[in-house]
Structure formats: C-alpha cells, structure tokens
Write the structure tokens for this entry.
Amino acid sequence: MVERGRETPFTGQLLNMRLKNALSIALVSSLLIVPATAQDVEWGSDAPPAIRNAYQTSDPELQELLKQMTWKEKCGQLTQYAGILTGPQPIKPELFERIGTGEIGSVLSVSEVERCRRMQDEALKTRLKIPLVFAFDVIHGYRTIFPIPISEAASFDPELAAEAARISATEAAAAGVNWTFAPMVDLARDPRWGRVIEGAGEDPYMGAVFAEARVKGFQGEDLALPDTLAACAKHLGGYGAAEGGRDYDTSEISEMTLREAYFPPFEAAMEAGAVTVMPSFQETAGRPSHANTYLLEDVLRDEWGFPGLVVSDYGAIEELLNHRIAGERSDAGMLALDAQVDMDMMSDIYRKLPRTPQTEEAVDRAVMRVLKLKKELGLFEDPYRYLDAEREKATVLKPEFRKAARRAAARGAVLLENRDSVLPLSLEGVKRVAVIGPLADDARSALGEWNLVGRAEDTISPLQGLEENFSEQGIEVVHAQGCPSWEEDTSKIDEAVALAEGSDLVILVLGEPYDATGESRNRTRIGLPGSQLELLRKVTATGKPAVTVLANGRPLTLEEVKEVSPTLLVFWHAGIEAGNGLYDILVGREAIGGKLPMTFPRNVGQVPLYYNRKTSGRPPVPGQEKYRVDYHDSPLTPLYEFGYGLSTSTFDLSTPKVVSPPGVWPLKLQVTLTNTGDRAADQVPQLYLSDEVRSVTPPRKELKGFKRVSLDPGKSRIVTFSVGRDDLSFVGLDMKRTFEPGWYTVAIGFSSSAEPNFRLRLNESGFQERAEI
Ligand code: BGC
C-alpha cells in the first residue's frame, strides 16, 4: 500500500518512477523554459490529471508516432483480436485483412513461430509498421506443463514458482509469445470456486510472496530479452469473493477487506514490476471492475502509481451491458475507457470508439500505454525478436524443463495422513502393485484445466510413471479404472477389488477430472465425484496396504476419505511429469514436504472457512456450543487447516529467540529446526503473529514468514524470520495502512495451528519487551 509521506516497501519504487518521469517530462517538454528537476514535479494522486496523463505518455519517440496515427489506427492499437490460433486450424483471412488495415494491435491465443511470423509480416506492411504483440495464457507452462499454480503454492517454495515461470516464459517466448495473462493473484477463500486452481490460496502474505516470484520469473531481468514475457496481474479486484463460489457472480466485500486481504498480492506484483493488469469480470459494490474508477484509477493508478497497461478480460467490456450499467455498446466502451482500461480483449468495441474531445485524450493515453509495452518488449527495435524457428525447435520441451516439472510435481504434494508410516514405500517383498482409480490413466487431467497447447501424448500420467518406474525394479503394475471420474457407475468396482486382492500394494489415484475445475467450473459438493468414494471404500476394505493419491484442483471435503485411507496424499493436477513426480515421492526419492495453501473444510456448509478470519465476540469454548460461534451439526474446525502437511520424518523446533536488539526494526526471530528421525526429509517452519488488541478487529493470526527446509537425519538448521514495521501494519478505519504499538502473540510451528510461544511488545521503534504466556 502506498501512502505519501510514509516509508513503505513501495516508496523507493515510486520515487524512482517519479525521478524517471520527471526526467522524461523534461525531455518531452524540451520547450519548457525552466527544465524540470526531480524535485520540481510532484506525482501521484496529488498531481493534476493533465500531468498524470503526461506522465503516462512521456516517451518522445512514441509521442512522435502517436502524432502520425489516424483515429482508426489508434483504435486498432487498443483492439485485441481473440481466436484460438494454435494447432492445425487455418488462420481466418478476415484476421489478415484486419491486421493489414491496422485495425488490430494484439492477437490473443496465438503461438508458434511460423504462424506469428505470418501475422507480424502483415502488420509490418501497414502504413506505420507498428508490430503486433502476441498474447497467450501461459498459466503454468507452455508445452512443458507444470503443476497447477495451487500445487506450486503448496510447495511453500516461491523459488520453485519463480523457476517454473522462468522456464514457461523461455519456452513460450521461443514460440512467438510476448505476453502472458499470468500470474493470477486472486485470493481464494471459497473452494467451490473453480479458479482456486490458478492462485496461491487463501492467505494474502502467501499470495504476495508467490505473486512476486511469478512476476519476476516471467519478466526476467529485462523485458526486451528474447526469453521473457510481459506479465499480467489478474483479476483486480475481489474476483475470488464471488458469492456462493459462483464464478462471475457479485462479490459483496468491504473496502477494508479488499485492501487488507485481496490487494496485497496485486501490490506485490506491482512492486515486482508487472507491466500489465487485468480487471475482474464481476461487480463489487455496484460497479463491475471494468468500469470501476475507484479500483482502476484511485487505487491502481493513483495510489499504487501503476504506469502500465490495463487489458480487459475476455469480452468484459461488452459484458457491461449485461451488468446493466450501459445500454449501448458504445456506452460500455466509454465507461471502460474512462476507467482507464486500455485494451479491449475480444469485445471489438474500442475499434469503433466515437471520436470526441473526451475520448481523444483517453484514447491517446491508452495508445501510448500499448506502444510503451511494445517498446519495452523490444518489438519496435526488432519485431521478429521472438520469431526464430530454430530457437523454437531447440527450446520447446527441453529435457531440463521436464526435469524441473518433475521436481515441481513432487514438491507440491501434501501428505495428509501416514498413519501406518507406509510412506515412503518399502518395496521389499512387493511383486505386484495395483494402480486403481479413474485419475490414474488420465494424462489430460494431469495437465490441469488451463492448458492450451500441452499435449496428453507428451504427458506421463500417474499410471505410466508408476508402470515405467516400478518395472525397472522388477515390479509388475496392474491397473483398473474402477469407475469413471465424474459419472456414477459402480459396475467395474468389483473388478478393481479383485485386482487389489491379488496385489501386494494398492495405489488409488482418485480426484477431480480437469474439467471439473478451473474457470466457470464451480461445484456445490466438493467431495470425490461419481462413484469414487464407493470404489475407495471397497478397495481399502480388502485390507491391502494402500496409498490414496488425490489428483485434485481444489480443497475437497474428505471426512470419510480420511477415515478409510490410512495413507492420504494430495497430489493435485501435477503437470506433464505427474507420473514420474508421483513415483519419486512414493519411494522417497524426493521428500514430501508440501503444506496446504487453503483450508480443507469438513463439509461445504462450513465454507467460507479460512484460518485468518476474525475472532468473534463469542469465540468457541470447548464443550459449549450454544451462544458461541459454532455449528450445531458440525465442528467449527476444518478437517485440515491452512499450512498443514505431514513430513516423512520427525522434527524438533527449538523455542524461538528474539535475536534483534530492542528498539530496532526489523524484528528478527530465530528457531532451530532439527530432523530427529532417521531419513532425510523436508519441513516448513511457519511464523504466525497475532495483534492482541487494536483499533480494528484483528484476524485470529496471520502468516508472516515461512521457509521450506530439507534436512538429513540428525541435522539442524537455524531459520531466521525478519518482520518489518510495515509487515505489521493494517488497514485502519480511514482505509489507510497504520501501525499500532502493543502486544503481539508469536507462534512458530508446522501449520496454522501452531501453539503460541510468547508475547512481544512492539512500538514504533521496534521490539520492547517479551513476556511468557
Ligand atoms: C479469463 C482470463 C484469461 C482470458 C483470456 C478469460 O476468460 O478470465 O483469465 O486471461 O480469458 O484467455
């Protein structure tokens, strides 16, 4: 959150932008009598709109280009043509025609060098030779598909997410893509919502950490390098709060909650330098995001100082008609333009914007942002920079990319139960393994829902990975689907049971098919679909040692699954190397150390249920359900809490120590983590703080740091958490971030249920005093 006159982590960036802009303004207005200096020009929301607009349009070369553009060419630059243009289908002649007449500034969902090159050739035949920018949803991979983003979040390893984004950018950029619509940084507190697969879960701190990692991964060191993509932080704002978990439906959400919970990942993406932003489809407080000037101007542009491009979501400008705040297409266009939505994806409304003094200024500003993006990507310098067929061939599906995807599949896994210590597997005496369940032989689902060019034939399904790897050990693998993944059908369960009975070990791969998750795939019941629960019951009733592996895209309700599965693993939709990654964790080649980035409720009736909700005036009291915040027919607690996940070894955590001196920020807390078991394993110490009393009701506790650590048996590692004053700030009643001195409870442990360690008194200048609980 940026506030003028206060040091925040963002202040440095803003200052740099101000300096840069001041200098470029000085250049643009070279006729100014007194050259402006950095100190002379005041930016941000205090600056008059004219200066703010100039700030957005301060590149002299681009200004010159803008001057030469006709109205039609300008509107063309604001138009993104949308059509799925990958694979064998021919490019529509209409598209070439429109590119050739300068009516299109960007094409969506197009990739492959040869195809992009043909379009770029066409664009360069136009009068002003403005290159196209090719956009594509590279969400968790291009051809090398990584695990779905919620799995990456479950790794509690932001470096892994950064690496996945880096590789995805390298691969997609080699295939002609310039711009990805990722990362999706929407906070998600409702597992019914299908799009929870795309984000980092329910916590604003986690969301911010992963947003930063992914933006940096996609954008690399310099956007103009041929292996980087422009990132897009989406979907601003409060998209994940859709009522009932219904994608696109209204979010009823207070400004305080927006700022406290939903904005931090966006702010982190801004801080990391994301050059584009996409608003959300739904409405909040009477205003759809694409016409929400509070969101897109007051907050995004003025408070956060975002200088980049805002692209609409797919057809969302036209949807302002359905939202009934516009009666005509042109009115919808004017509303979006007025809210500073710069590029129109798919609605084709901006292409025919009416020319008025009001639109003229707004269109110029938007065009400058489009041109600026193209310039930053190096497209003016070399429009063919990303169009090298040799590079494409040498880059796509590189073996080292697959290796990284395999490791990522393993690192996202979360062990929910290991009651008989079956994992990692001991293969002694195992001759025959039964791999059972509808998700076992489903390579398509392993790729996840967001997958445009990933191919099932490139993908190692769970079954294939287990078959290949076990056969190398001389172990036979037999398979039965048991039942379909979605429909009710029990006719093949007996066959699966017989197979289990004739085997030494059973691996059940159950879960959600890919198309039960993702955009518009909301569910009202989030248990195992179809007849899978019955299959699980009957197979586990054989008494054979069994591992239940879940290939899912959201938190599921697992009460009975837990009961009948002594060994239970969340494996998500784990990408192109799913099967190999699964084998690695089952046999202990990779440690299982993931944690849940979202609460797993007991039942849908508890939703929304998230760990950092507020305390009530009537908090729960064990054994006293009435007149307390509780349910009459269900415990209040979740089945598995945020941050939960078992390790395959035992770990000891020392009592934390404050290691920073009193009266100094940041506060530093240290713990020693020791692997007390007999095998190498991973564990994730997590720091939770809770502000005891303050002027705005605090969350029960808040994650403020975590670190995934790998340790050999008997070894220890010191983990230091560093907490700045701003990390403890909160949104006050005046909607501004504030810090209040007082007592904080500290809890460091292995999940959000960590027991409190001690209390600390903190004031403006830092740590003052420690007290036992
Ligand atoms: C989604 C966006 C996506 C866009 C383009 C929309 O339906 O909401 O997240 O970037 O399509 O594919």
In short: The chain is about 30% helix and 15% strand. The CA atoms of residues 354 and 686 lie 55 Å apart. The radius of gyration is 27 Å.
